[in-house]
Amino acid sequence: MIKLIKFILLILFLILSFQKLLVANNNSLLVDKISKNVRCLICQGQSVYDSQSDFALSMKMLIKNKLEEGKSEKQIYDYLKNQYGEWIVYEPGFNKKNLVLWIFPLILFIFGGLLIYRKVFIN
Amino acid sequence: MKKNIFYLIILLFFTFIFTVFYIGLDKPNFYKPKEVKNKILEEFTSTDLFSNKEYNSYDIIENNKFTLINIWSSWCVPCRSEHLVLMDLSEKTNLNIVGLNYKDKKNNAIKFLNELGNPFSIILTDPDGIISISLGAYGVPETFLLNNKLKVIKKYIGPLTNENILEIIKIIK
């Protein structure tokens, strides 16, 4: 009986420890993903993931801590944007300053489509 | 007629592109940090460099109307010249100057202070640089002037100069 309990305990322990490992691994993948989308502000053309500067190393630790606190990916981006401004993330948000940039390809696409339509079906 | 309209559209299109790039060329393309004026500093806890006592961000403000948080390190070269300016400020005013020792070794930090003097009322430690990042700092040296509600009144990136000191004295008077 005692042997059985010991065995069950051992199995439980193993499951728990593997689960912890799995969660940790997931978090580190997420840290990598987030840090690839965050600009290293003191480096030239590098993401936080690529850089080994003091700023980037601390930023990676901060992202890891925030994830361990249970913050979501979006919450972390919002937090960083609030601290450092929009520039820190690689994907710019939709605002009136970059409206043309977002809309222009769409206009070109529609215009081109119309041209092709006219060439093929009307002429 | 149709052809003319076509050429006109093409001409307008290229004029538009040319104007956009022409204006774009004139704009400076280096990044300027966002102004953090009037932002409330995030709460943090850290330990004292000498006593290892834990401090909260509200503890360091205490009853002072203004507090200056200076991020420094013994390995940072510009911090050396800045330190003289900070010493000058601490002698001229009774401003509460708090040091945040960034990614430094305790022995080196103490040696640095013994050599150049200690203008700080408290020195907190930031061994991983996480506190500095959560304050919105870029590196060392960097300085935040706060009011008693932890609101950032002024932020200085890079070493403080004598002009900055005059400005600080003007603000706190």
Model description:
The complex is a heterodimer of chains A (123) and B (173). Chain A is mostly helical and 123 residues long. Helix content of chain A is 70%, strand content 0%. Chain A has helices at 2-36, 54-68, 73-84, 99-122. In chain A, helix 1 crosses helix 2 (54-68). The model of chain A has no long low-confidence stretch (mean pLDDT 87). Chain B has one domain (45-172): Glutaredoxin (3-Layer(aba) Sandwich). In chain B, 43% of the residues lie in helices and 21% in strands. Chain A binds chain B through residues 41-42, 54-55, 57-59, 61-62, 65, 83-85, 87, and chain B through 31, 33-34, 103, 128-130, 132-134, 136, 138-139.
Q: What tags apply to this protein structure?
A:
heterodimer; A: 123 residues; mainly alpha; Helicase, Ruva Protein, domain 3; 4 helices; B: 173 residues; alpha/beta; Glutaredoxin; five-stranded mixed β-sheet; two-stranded antiparallel sheet; 21% strand
